[in-house]
Amino acid sequence: MSIEPAKLKIALDSDRDNYAVMGNPVAHSKSPIIHQTFADQAGQELFYQAIHVPKGQFGEAINQFRTMEGKGLNVTVPFKEEAYKLCDHLSFRSSVAMAVNTIIFSADGGIIGDNTDGVGLSVDLMKNKISLQGRRVLILGAGGAVRGVLGPLCDQRPEQIVIANRTMSKAETLAAHFKGNNVSACDLDKLGNLGAFDVIINGTSSGLNGELPPLPISIVSTDTCCYDMVYGDTETVFNQWAKENGARMTLDGLGMLVEQAAEAFYIWRGVKPETGPVIKMLRGK
Ligand code: ATR
């Protein structure tokens, strides 16, 4: 006898505009505190919650939220690609990313998909005075997280973007998707032939398990800035590795998280939040 999965039941706040992040797992998401803080800054009333959606029930979850007149959604792992397929309309950047992390419900009930991850990364790089223009950039990983940010990174016109991935065929597919932007693919094993990069962005999920892809130290020099798209309470293994090998600067993905949220807040609420104080608060400073 098979056991039916528990029926999803979403509860909204009837007195306020409702927003949520849907994911699995999502319990530790920082998005509710980030968006409530943005709302306080703007003097706006809203309710933002994290909703754990069982796999296979994402379409139902969106429909429930829409029917109850929820205003907007963020989408996180593992539903960004499914959200992309479910939307009635897509922004240009989400169609390039083939993934949606921000949903707007239009007045006629349509689902509009957008993706603010790439702009979140670009803005965080810019605020930390890291320009990609004319620079040699290495991106580690070729999964959904990397595809989501490549468009805005190419827009900065780097001299070169090399994508290196454990599974070479995925790096090649991604590079082909962005051809014409000086993007190429490289085997992780061959990285040692390419010299030092100006900027290295780690978009692999290996750090979530405390692992690091095998990397030659020759890709780092004392001029290299390293950016890990993930973050944690302690320094990520990639950033530890970068520091040990003399990188000029290391950053983790907390800034990107707050910046992508700020862009979503702007889309929904028409106000650009101040992100600096929110990043400081989350770092406990
Ligand atoms: P995400 O949505 O986080 O990008 P994903 O699409 O599953 O998740 O992609 C994970 C990325 O991290 C991939 O590039 C993966 O490499 P493969 O394509 O070879 O699977 C990379 N990755 C995960 N664990 C890794 C490890 N231990 N070493 C190297 N790369 C790893």
Amount of helix = 25-40%
Task: Using the 3D structure, state the CATH architecture of the largest domain.
Answer: 3-Layer(aba) Sandwich
Please report the total strand number as a whole number.
12
- In whole angstroms, the N-to-C terminal distance is 53 Å
Molecular shape? globular
**CATH fold assignment of the largest domain:** Rossmann fold
How would a textbook summarize the main sheet? 6 strands, mixed
Structural class of the secondary structure composition?
alpha/beta
* Low-pLDDT residue intervals, each spanning 5 or more residues: none
**CATH level-4 homologous superfamily of the largest domain:** NAD(P)-binding Rossmann-like Domain
Oligomerization state: single chain
Bound molecules: 2'-monophosphoadenosine-5'-diphosphate
Tally of individual domains = 2
Strand content: 15-25%
Written as H for each helix and E for each strand, in order along the chain, the element string is EHEHEHEHEEHEHEHEEEHEHH
The largest sheet has its strands arranged as 2-1-3-5-6-4
Question: Over the alpha carbons, how many angstroms does the gyration radius reach?
Answer: 19 Å
Give average pLDDT, whole number.
95
The count of helical stretches stands at 10
Tell me the name of the CATH class of the largest domain.
Alpha Beta
